[in-house]
Amino acid sequence: AASYGTFLGSSYRLDMVRTGAALYGLNPLPGRANPMLPVVGLRARILQVREVEAGDTAGYGATWTAEGKRRLATLAVGYADGLLRESANRGSVRFGPMAAPIVGRVSMDLVTVDVTSVPPAWAQPGGFADLVGPHGTIEDLARDSGTIGYELLTRLGPRLRRVYEGAT
Fold it and tell me: How many CA atoms lie within 13 Å of 87's alpha carbon, on the beta-carbon side?
């Protein structure tokens, strides 16, 4: 049985289980509360914060246009790290409990987010934004990208610094 099957009872497990995605905290029970604890987080460093005016654009091809004065942060993460290009103009990142939408295209190394509603002290160059963390799951990011959490897990690139906590 795979992750889902391990929760269906012994008659579904036969003599072997392969827990797969549940090992990483993904919800093995679609439509129900997740019995697993998350074990993967993903943070990106804030490289710069800029104020833009109405009519200014962000991203390759200028796919996002500011409708008024906005504050944008550039993060050091892109599709080479596993953030799907499909997150462009529809995904979000977190600064504590506050979501900041991704604006413009996701490039190879960078993504831009609108931090206008985020307190300036939370979104400063050198700080971090959570793509996956205590206030947003990998399933949230996957849903916003039009995929599943397992795909995002398998795309996390080698450029990402890995920190193993609690490992012996």
Answer: 29
